[in-house]
Amino acid sequence: MAVWGLSFKPNTDDMREAPSRVLIEAVWAAGGRVVAFDPEAMDACQAIYGERDDMAYALTKEAALDGADCLAICTEWKAFRSPDFEGIKQRLVSPLIFDGRNLYDPHFMAALQIEYYAIGRGSLSTVVRLTRTPPPLHRRQRSPYARMPSRRVWSRRLGGESAARSTYQRRFCASCPLT
After folding, report:
1. Which residue in 7, 112, 144, 172 is deepest, having the highest Cβ count within 10 Å?
2. Which of 114, 92, 93, 94 is nearest to 103 (CA)?
3. Which H or E run contains 57?
């Protein structure tokens, strides 16, 4: 597993309460190997864990990906915000990212065909459901969030009752079977 970010927050080398420690120790408990990169905290991590066969430190974020099964992002360093995603796909055994800091857009990652788990956001289908606009209301139902002009105002603006009704129906009630 490749791990980007070891410190508990960016711009520090402090690893006292870092989520990366829990993740790394869980990977070791499962028998896995970790290759980590952090711009500041690699020396602190080496001081905590020492030399181990199942822990390696990469000189660059790209080098940490070589031959890894997946990538886990534990700290939101600016260097991690806009990586080369095609390079990530080529270097990982399978394009799989666990993002503990929600740095990337799930729709963008799906378009790139990268399996992406944004910790705390839920699955992509949940995100898609929440971002869709609700269906339009029937003209007799009033939304508390939108103040629509009355039919009389539409009639005056468009030059006649039938023109106002048809424009209103086309714009706001196109899918409504009652109009």
Report:
1. 7
2. 114
3. strand 55-57
